[in-house]
Write a structure and sequence with these properties.
This protein has 312 residues and is an alpha+beta fold. The chain has nine helices and twelve strands. The strands form two sheets. Strands 1, 2, 3, 4, 5, 6, 7 and 12 form an eight-stranded mixed sheet that branches. It has a four-stranded antiparallel sheet with strand order 9-10-8-11. The longest helix has 23 residues, at 201-223. It is globular. The two termini are 22 Å apart. The structure holds (3R)-3-hydroxy-3-methyl-5-(phosphonooxy)pentanoic acid. The site of (3R)-3-hydroxy-3-methyl-5-(phosphonooxy)pentanoic acid has 12 residues, from helix 5.
């Protein structure tokens, strides 16, 4: 095995556009990779992991588990690896539903396999990153690692993934607002499911509506209909709200995005904090920036990423 000097790879984060939570009960969901990246570089070294955002990650740190799990998954598949130093630089907020750990796992896997001069393809990267995610997260669906590996739009239902050839409507962008409210996906999922069992048939109707929203959203994307897409985002937000997945700050951000010209907005991912996404016309970008800055929000203007993981 010939090791090169240093290899860097970058992988995108993601947002869920439609169907979060409903997907837990077998309904479909739609996610998209976005133009915010984690860049990871590896070289022969002493097993040191350094994050530009978090500093040196000591072996005892809880942040270290993911890095160790990736190396372990590579070893299981390809045999012993040399000791490596890792440096990671992430544009993604942590624990906000944007798939930052998946993007770390995917970019690290890609960089390690490149450094070791292994003949690999994207599916190898996805499988290894998914193994690593399984070691550190409770039952990951695999959507984050799939989107980070391949990019683009992804439809998924009951563990089946289908990449869809979609584009955002012409002259629209996604705005992502980080509410800064931390939440644990597992806790929100459990409480939403508890409400589901308390309200029975009402929840079934809400979830069926969620399923219809996904199919109509795919049509709206195919037809490039920004108004319809925005309206469906609001309906999706309302359905999630009725299942207890929103919060005051999430609702406030949705209203703020609407009053600054968004076609629609919704929580993305588990909710009760994390990120809120909006679909905005390009023409509203500058006024929106000023408005969101004045409100003091941390926000990102993004486009879909269609490339997935690449050498950087
Ligand atoms: O917030 P995230 O990106 O971890 O997404 C959670 C999505 C849920 O549908 C709420 C849970 C799941 O496992 O699909």
């Amino acid at each position: 095995m010939v090791c090169l000097l240093m290899k860097c790879s970058k992988a995108p984060g993601k947002v869920l556009l439609f169907g979060e939570h409903f997907v837990v009960k077998g309904k479909p969901a739609l996610g998209v990779a976005v133009s915010l990246y984690v860049k990871t570089c590896v070289e022969l070294g002493k097993g040191r992991v350094y994050s530009k955002q978090l500093g040196l990650i000591e072996p005892s740190s809880p942040h270290r588990a993911l890095f160790d799990a990736v190396i372990q998954a590579v070893v299981e598949r390809y045999g012993a690896t040399p000791s490596l130093d890792v440096e990671v630089d992430s544009e993604l907020p942590i624990a906000s539903g944007m798939g930052s750990s998946a993007a770390i796992a995917v970019s690290l896997t890609h960089a390690v396999l490149s450094l070791m001069n292994i003949d690999f393809n994207r599916e190898d990267v996805r499988l290894i990153a998914h193994e690593a995610e399984k070691a550190v997260h409770y039952r990951p669906s695999g959507v984050d690692t799939t989107l980070s590996t391949y990019g683009g739009f992804l439809y998924y239902k009951q563990g089946d993934f289908k990449r869809l050839d979609l584009r955002l409507p012409v002259d629209t962008l996604l705005v992502i607002v980080n509410t800064g409210q931390k939440r644990q996906t597992g806790v929100v999922v459990r409480e939403v499911l508890e409400r589901y069992s308390r309200i029975g048939e009402v929840a079934e109707l809400i979830y069926s509506a969620g399923e219809l929203v996904v199919s109509k959203a795919i049509k709206a994307l195919e037809q490039g209909d920004a108004n319809q897409l925005g309206e469906l985002m609001l309906v999706n937000h309302g359905l999630l709200w009725s299942m207890g997945a929103s919060s005051i700050i999430c609702d406030t951000v949705v209203h703020d995005l609407l009053s600054s010209g968004a076609y629609g907005a919704k929580i993305s991912g588990a909710g009760r904090g994390g990120v809120v996404i909006g679909l905005i016309p390009r023409s509203a970008l500058e006024s929106l920036r000023v408005w969101l800055q004045r409100k003091g929000y941390e926000f990102y203007i993004v486009e879909p990423d269609y490339t997935g993981v690449v050498s950087a």
